[in-house]
Design brief:
It is built from 8 helices and 5 strands; from the N terminus they run ααβββββαααααα. The radius of gyration is 27 Å and the shape is elongated. By secondary structure, it is α+β, with helices and mostly antiparallel strands.
Amino acid sequence: MAGLSPITNHPSPITAPSPRAFALKALLWLPLAFVVWMAWAPLWVLPAMHLAKAVLLGLWGGLFDGVTLGGELLDGAGRVVSRASYLVTVSTHVQVSVAASDGHAGGVGVLEPTLNPMIYAWSLPLFAGLAMATPLSAWRRALQFAVALAAIWAAQAFGTVAEALKAVAFDSGPEGAVAAAQAHLSPNVLAVVYQFSVLILPAVLPVVLWVAFNRPFIERLVGRAGEPAAPAEGHSGDPSPTERV
């Protein structure tokens, strides 16, 4: 029939939203992403903890004795308030002097710092907001999440290792400083690595991953931002005959 157009099997391409619409959608996804991230915190910490454990015990076995999931939250007086399953407790071979305080006689103990790997992993909800706002097929989005999780877990383990080394070198008094020197750990290098892992890497990594995965979409998004405004109703883009004169 003349009034019907033929049906094609080619899927229509996904059009990029306006930059403002994309930014709003990403912002709306962030609260849910952070809630899921915090609710399942032990799940996100567990793989990174095992990676950090392998590195610490493999490279610095003379300093560290074990890494376990779970830790105690202390108040200002050093009393245990509660136990959090997303924290990581690191056991070391470093003996430190404990000063006497109210109710405590002091003495000598083994350094066992409690770390919070979640401070190195808030890049996950940031990436989730960007990925969920990007128009993708289900399998492609799942693939991006899988690769991003592996990269974020590696960065989280990197930060956990850096903090464990910092705890020995800087937070355990002269005994820890001596132990770090014997392990040939440079205080200046440790300081730079720790600052990079906690301040720069969590903020930069999700953006780098999202850009690497979605360059064609970003090019279309940037193209939409650079498009000229549509002409007002009743005016065409071609000049009128009087304008040509």
